Please model this.
Amino acid sequence: MGRRPLVAGNWKMHTTIQEARKLAEAVVKAGADVIDRDIMIAPPFTALSAVFEIVRGSPSVRLAAQNICWAEKGAFTGEISPVMLKDAGCSMAIIGHSERRHVFGEDDAMINKRVLGAFEFELVPVFCIGETLDEREAGKTMEILENQMRSGLAGVTADQAQTVVVAYEPVWAIGTGKTATVEQAQEVHAFLRGLLVSMFEKNIATQIRILYGGSVNPENVDALMSQEDVDGALVGGASLKAESFDRIIHFQ
Model:
């Protein structure tokens, strides 16, 4: 369908500013020869401005935040606004990551507010969904994902939907070393594509990039990326090592 692959690195709560600069330099170098795919990195908030100074001249590397508030400013202690993120150089923001849902208790309604806030201020949401192991074993995977998708993207217009990035992250595979098989990943991604068709329309749904996240590494990235509806990867631990992320960027 001509969707441009996206390789995204989520650094989570890792890297000092100095470490972030060094890692960003390595990512820019790794992406210097890339012309047919996009790269995104999401450092911690403290390092965003420093990393932007390094990636701003790169044609392929985009800067993202790991979360975003829906409000421009105000009494929201501990949050960070879309305006602040744009000022720091961000063009994208991860929203609804499983750790935000399951560690910090963010529900679908809050995640939806964050998605709409990102769109309001022209930041691209990287909208994350995923089921737990209990939910998968109970045969509820598709039901859970549909609820998360419909709730999280409620109120999103067709025009906005064309730019959203969806990231499917089975919670049981994040940081555990377990990865969905390529068949499991494709099955879910194809289901999500069909769901997007029903929510928007086919010509929009076929443009939306759906990433796979969950213990993506240099050994499994080629097989995952060979699947028709897997349009990229949201990478955690392996994005913190320059050599392994370089290999993931250069998937074949």
Remarks:
- Strands lie at 6-10, 38-42, 61-65, 92-95, 124-129, 165-168, 209-213, 232-235.
- The two ends are 18 Å apart (CA to CA).
- Residues 182-199 form the longest helix (18 residues).
